[in-house]
Amino acid sequence: MKKEYYNPEDLNKFGEITKWNKELGERFFEYYNKVFEEGALTAREKSLIALAVAHVVQCPYCIDAYTKDGLQRGIENEEMMEAVHVGAAIKSGAVLVHGVQMMNRYDQLSM
Amino acid sequence: MAKKSLKARKSELSDTKRQLELLSTGVFETGTLPLFKEKLKQHQLSALQPHPLEVLQINMGYMCNQVCAHCHVDAGPDRKEYITKITMNACIKVMQSQAIQTVDLTGGAPEMHPDFRWFVEQIRSQTQVKEIIVRSNLTIILANKKYHDLPLFFAKHQVHVVSSLPFYKRNKTDRQRGSGVFDSSIKALEMLNTVGYGKPGTGLLLDLVYNPSGAFLPGDQAALEQDYKNALNTDFGLVFNQLFALTNLPISRFLDYLIASENYEEYMTNLVNAFNPTAAKNVMCTTTLSVSWDGYLYDCDFNQMLGLKVASKRNHISEFDAQVLQNREIQVSQHCYGCTAGSGSSCQGAIA
After folding, report:
1. Which residues of chain B make contact with A72, given a CB cutoff of 8 A?
2. Which residue, A12, B316, B325, B339, is most buried by CB atoms nearer than 10 A?
3. Which parts of chain B sit beneath pLDDT 50?
4. What superfamily in CATH does domain A13-109 come from?
5. DSSP-assigned beta bridge partners for residue B289
6. Shortest CA gap A89–chain B (Å)
7. Stretch 23-42 of chain A: residues touching chain B, C-beta under 8 Å
8. Which tens digits make up the pLDDT trace of B258-275?
């Protein structure tokens, strides 16, 4: 058995998930491809959102995929890093906003 | 950016046989990835056959004022191969006898050839060729005083200028093509715009070529063209006609880069996975013949750089025989995946 949980080559096999459940797999990919089409948001904007989310959910496959996708679209490294900071800010904000809950609880329990 | 050609560095990849060996072994030998021929069969496509000849692409020589990191020609100032007037005259003879629509002059930097202007004048005065393309690296126009009037020369002879500009920002362009290349390119584009190139109503066509600065495929050509147009117009007031998004083919210096950066297998996997049968039906080698500086014939410029002459007994421009050449089978190897990936790639950009 392999010792690593993540193997970069597995990204190329993503499509194979349809083998064990064709209907749901195909519906997923249909949905996925539709989401990334040009719409009210451009495909370029969606690519940057995907990159930020990829970092927040800490998916190494998605980070590889959307860094390359960004390069292909001419997205520059400054833009990519700003997107990652947006993700980081929301993630850290989500931690810190719970501090209010901690403060409320603290005050409730204290004399 | 490299300072010398692979040939001057005596790199093993300057040997075309070594390149072809690399492209046929490894992942292609183990069966991890299919050979290009097999891929065609998987999609019920027959071996590539030529259609009537439309484009004669002539390589004027490998000398260039730049040494770009991705160059498939391995061109540079240290390359001395030049086409002779005898071969140029043989090309003109073919242009006179065949219904060739377009002559595509490439290099190296074709303008550096001492008889470049003579050749353009001869094509215009002695043949019915509709379109003459020059593949200009732009910086040549500023490289020496003797080239400063090239925009006027191009305009006088209605030459269609196709220029490389890897990106609309300085950093990526200079990383691929050398320090200062972006600023020189912008200045050269200004000079071309000044004489009317890229401007509506002038008939003077100025197209730009984008190719990725790294181990990834080009994105959507139309979207990139819009980004280029917006950026070049906003930042520099420049205009151009079309953008051609080209895929870097895994040969010569780009192959050297892929191997050195350990991107080769991933890049080849990307190319194979992005195989597009529609692009495969429209590949440029079906309507183009490439002539090397020493007069030999190739199915395309990439095959020329791999030393893969046309599979025909008549493989030299001096013994051109349209009928015999028409019956040949186009030579392919795994580099051909570069022209069939995604929207496809040709000297005129996307093909699908």
Report:
1. 212, 216-219
2. B339
3. none
4. AhpD-like (1.20.1290.10)
5. B56
6. 28
7. none
8. 999 999 999 999 999 999
pTM: 0.89
Fold of domain B12-340: TIM Barrel (3.20.20)
Residue whose tokens read 């050979």? B35
The domain spans of chain B are 12-340
Sheet with B243-245, strands from edge to edge, namely: B243-245, B206-210, B159-164, B131-136, B102-106, B55-59, B288-291, B297-298
Query: From CA B132, how far away is CA B102, in angstroms rounded?
Result: 6
What confidence score (pLDDT) does residue B175 get?
78
Which chain A residues have a beta carbon less than 8 Å from that of B220? 43, 73
* A11 interface with B at CB cutoff 8 Å: no
Condensed to tens digits (0 to 9), the pLDDT of residues B130-178 reads 999 999 999 999 999 999 999 999 999 999 999 999 889 888 778 777 7
User: Would you kindly state where each structural domain of chain A is located, as residue ranges?
Assistant: 13-109
Q: What pLDDT is stored for residue A1 in this prediction?
A: 62
3-state secondary structure of B155: helix
Cβ–Cβ gap A74/B269 under 8 Å: no
Residue in B216, B220, B227 nearest the CB of A71: B216
What is the C-alpha end-to-end distance of chain B, expressed in Å? 32
Tell me, rounded to whole angstroms, the distance of Cα A75 from its chain centroid.
17
Instruction: Decide if A76 touches B, using CB distance below 8 A.
Output: yes
Average pLDDT over residues A13-20: 95
Contacts of B266 in chain A (CB under 8 A): 8
